[in-house]
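Notes from the 1:1 (GR / supervisor)

We went over the backlog. Supervisor wanted to see one worked example end to end before approving the batch request, so GR pasted a single chain during the call. The sequence is below; no edits were made to it. Supervisor asked that the structure be written out right there so they could see what the output format looks like.
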Amino acid sequence: MATRTREKHEKLEASRDKRPYAVAKNIRISPYKVRAVLDVIRGKKYNEAVAMLNALNKSSCDPILKVLKSAAANAENNSGYDVDTLVLAECFADQGPTLKRMMPRAKGRGNRILKRTSHITIRLDANTSIQTTDRR
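Structure output shown during the call:
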């Protein structure tokens, strides 16, 4: 039985995506707002994406910039990539846990307020091996 488990682990390890990435979890901003900014920077070079995030006037730019810099540091330190050759291969925002709050209304009732959270993932790749394609 241990042999089968070992084979299964080796197969999973061989098929795992080895590109450098970074993840930020439970960011207190709606994933809809984060996805709007991620759509702008997807497929861009690292330096262009950083410049765009610094110029954009959106609240989700700060956490995205932090994750992007973390992914670039992972690529440089762990994988040995040069920062100037990096491209944003994948970037997406998933829904995190939702905080449920109540707002008092008339006649003793209450309405639910949903405070949404996001999980932001950015995966980088070297410029030579990726061809940026539009997903639309």
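Supervisor's comment: The beta strands are 21-27, 86-95, 99-104, 110-115, 118-126.
Batch request approved.
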